Fold this protein.
Amino acid sequence: MRALTLDGPQNAPLRILCLGAHADDLEIGCGGAVLGLLRRRKAVEVDWVVFSAQGARAREARRGAALFLKGARRTRITIGRFRDGFFPYEGARIKQVFEQLKRRPAPDLVFTHCRDDRHQDHRVVSDLTWQTFRNHCILEYEVSKFDGDLGTPNVFVPLDRATSARKVASIHAAFSSQRGRPWFTPETFMALMRLRGVECRAPLGLAEAFHARKLVLKS
Ligand SMILES: [Zn+2]
């Protein structure tokens, strides 16, 4: 299948907005795609927003952003302190953050949680993304979890082995508090990238996958 590339104004930076409910969501969901974009594109500006991370988790979130955003022309890191697990009950305050994000320069690409994600915090971020960004390219990333909610994604970003390995190594370097969790292993992250690589016939067998509700192509 012929791969499409992101279009954009000549001589203008590519602006990416990355939205994650918790520390490590973005790195797991779209870390490989972000690493790839930063490697291929000369000028990338990244707004990186983690809504819930406090104390040690906030430090981990900043460490994750630093590892994944090397080479960006500009980064703006926002770490929120909303209560983990309670996003549906903090909705008004979280929506205010989205209202502030809307006033920033319009992003060319938005990464957010999947609409059908079974984690309540993830769903709130996804819903508010669509409520806020009404004329934007939005890709919803996936996070494997106990709930077993992975669907059938329809956009694939093939990754080379070096990028995939860097993604996994950076996740483990940044989020040391998660290392004791049974799901937090290199095999978990590599397995999903391998599966998505099979589904898109990635040349090197590895990919990240996303849900796109709508895309606009040039005729
Ligand atoms: Zn999460």
Observations:
- The two ends are 18 Å apart (CA to CA).
- The longest strand covers residues 14-22.
- The mean pLDDT is 96.
- The chain is about 35% helix and 20% strand.
